[in-house]
Amino acid sequence: MTIIVFGSINLDLVTRTHRLPKPGETLAGISFFTASGGKGANQAVAAAKLGMITWMIGRVGGDSFGQELLESLQQSGVKCDRILIDDTTPSGIATITVEDTGENTIVIVPGANDRVNESDCDRLTDLLPHAAALLLQLEIPLPAVLAAAKKAQNAGVPVILDPAPARELPPELYALIDIITPNETELSILTGIAVRDIETAREAITELQRRGVRTAIAKLGAKGVLCARGEEELFVPAFAVAAVDTVAAGDAFNGALAVAIAQGLPLREAIVWGAAAGALTVTKPGAQSALPSRLTFEDFLREGKIKT
């Protein structure tokens, strides 16, 4: 079985500061680096580094950034044959500022990602019969996300949506989603319910179920993970780690969740896998470079701590 990721591919331009700037304020930064990113690409690398055959479908520009992004994905073991090089536009970029606590702000310029459309879904068709899951995000246009979800449902392939960056979704998309994985902010935006704690998160994921989602998983950071599937509720506490950089933590969660599901693990154990991968990722700076290998991941799961 394989995993398919349909979504965004960006180059991250990362600045580290002691604290995030206020509006209109100029701060001196500590360091700067570039890293391969994009929520789609991050999720593909997360799954591939955990040993799963993973296909990435999306677009990069016909520029040096695009070549760098493709080479990085290939080095991580992601299959890139279905990524379109679009010579009419630059590659997508994300400018990221990270403060000492690990919190961050992100501004995305979508570039080639914004040109992904329903025709790109044609590159999914022959892969779906062998797929355990299709992973989607919202850094590409919604019509393309909707078309890909429809193709997966028609093929009987589970759809896992990371609703980020959060926005109003077409009502018909909810019924196509097998698993949705918002964080607190995204959950609040999607439902209009201010998510502050477990109780308000429970109310919000119940609303997502009411809209047609089969399984709703709320990623609540240090509070843990809350999941509703039918009448069943699951809660997984957060792993205690020292956060350096929260970039790509949610992508690590989704990638590991999908790998666990592909391997036939029960939902609770799959959520534990997601939580563990996310916890490991926040202990290192960067996006794809911070995603754990299978060996590191298994050590962490076995010992409940990071092996030094």
Structural write-up:
This protein is an alpha/beta fold. It has one domain: Ribokinase (UDP-N-acetylmuramoyl-L-alanine:D-glutamate ligase), CATH 3.40.1190. The chain is 32% helix and 23% strand. It is built from 9 helices and 13 strands. The strands form 2 sheets. Strands 5-4-1-8-9-10-11-12-13 form a 9-stranded mixed β-sheet, sandwiched between helices. Strands 3-2-6-7 form a 4-stranded mixed β-sheet. The longest helix has 15 residues. It is globular, with a radius of gyration of 18 Å. The model has no long low-confidence stretch (mean pLDDT 94).
Give a quick summary of the entry:
With 308 residues, the chain is an alpha/beta fold. Helix content is 32%, strand content 23%.
| Class computed from helices, strands and strand pairing | alpha/beta
Note the gap between the termini. 33 Å
Briefly, what CATH class? Alpha Beta
- Strand % is 15-25%
Extended strand count: 13
Mean pLDDT: 94
Note the total helix count.
Answer: 9
In CATH terms, what is the architecture?
3-Layer(aba) Sandwich
Rg from Cα: 18 Å
Shape: globular
Helix percent band: 25-40%
Uncertain regions spanning at least 5 consecutive residues: none
Q: Going across the major beta sheet, what is the strand order?
A: 5-4-1-8-9-10-11-12-13
Q: Element order, helices and strands?
A: EEEHEHEEEEHEHEHHEEEHHH
> How many domains, as an integer?
1
**CATH-assigned homologous superfamily:** Ribokinase
CATH topology: UDP-N-acetylmuramoyl-L-alanine:D-glutamate ligase
Biggest β-sheet description: 9 strands, mixed
